[in-house]
Fold:
Amino acid sequence: MLVIVDESTSDIYPTHKEVQTFCRPGEGADTCIWLVYGAKGFKCTYYNKLSGPYVQWLEGKTVAKRDGCNYVAELDIGSLNFGKNEVYPLT
Structure:
C-alpha cells in the first residue's frame, strides 16, 4: 500500500490484493464507501473524506455502506514521513 503524505492530505493507493481484501468492491453493503477509482487506479479517501460521497452515504443513497476498514482506520498517518511511504498490511 502506497501512502503519500503532504501538509494537507494523505493519499492511500492500495494494491489490487489489498483492494479485494479490505475494500471489497462489488460486495454491496460490505464495500467500503471511501474506495474510489481514477486515472492512477484505486484510491482510499478515508483520510480525505469527500463531501459529496459522504453526504450521499449519510443519506443512505449509496450501495456501499461500510465506513472504512480497521487497517486504514488504525493507520498512524502522523508517524509517516512526508512524501511516499510503503506500508505492508498483507505479507
Q: What stands out?
A: The mean pLDDT is 91.
